[in-house]
Amino acid sequence: MLTALDPLDRKILSELIRDARISQLALAERVGLSATSCARRVLQMEKAGVIKGYSAEIDANSLGFPLTVIVHITLDRQSEDALRVFEAEIQKCPDVVACHLMSGTDDYRLSVLARDMEDYERIHKQHLSRLPGVARLQSSFAMRTVVRRSISPAALHG
After folding, report:
1. Which of 27, 56, 73, 153 could staple 108 via S-S, CB 3.0–4.6 A?
2. Cα–Cα distances in Å, from 76 out to 17, 91, 127, 130?
3. Angle formed at CA 147 by CA 92 and CA 61, multiple of 5 degrees
4. Are 13 and 73 found together in one domain?
């Protein structure tokens, strides 16, 4: 089991954030390790859950989803059961690309991708307004994405 990340682990993570498709050999060269040692460290971080997986960053706009909607949801009650039921249902909504349990006035913050306002209206009517326990739902429309990261680079060097 991985106990703590050392500077080499952090360097490996930085390189994987930059290019998750990098070969093990190229990764090892960039961080100054043998391919075997580097692969062993990556495997340890995967097993420990530091690396949860690998994915492609897709441009939603190029696929016809130029509208990003941030939806703030307040539930009518915050019991464990109400949260569990809401979370089970929100996972079934294919248009929701992120959902966060929040502190403060809103219980959840969602990110939704839509083709246009009519598409968002469909999502709102068919999915969001039917979610269990919703007392208030407020939508904001992102004009453009300024920064998007999986993790701050500073977090890897701190």
Report:
1. 73
2. 39, 19, 17, 13
3. 55
4. no
| 3-state SS class at 149 | coil
Per-residue pLDDT of 54-95, as tens digits, reads 988 889 999 999 999 999 999 999 999 999 999 999 999 999
8, 31 contact by CB (below 8 A): yes
Domain of 14 in residue numbering reads as 7-47
Residue-wise DSSP of 30-65: HHTS-HHHHHHHHHHHHHTTSS--------GGGGT-
Compute the mean pLDDT over every residue in the chain, rounded to the nearest whole number.
Answer: 93
Whichever domain contains 133, its CATH number is: 3.30.70.920
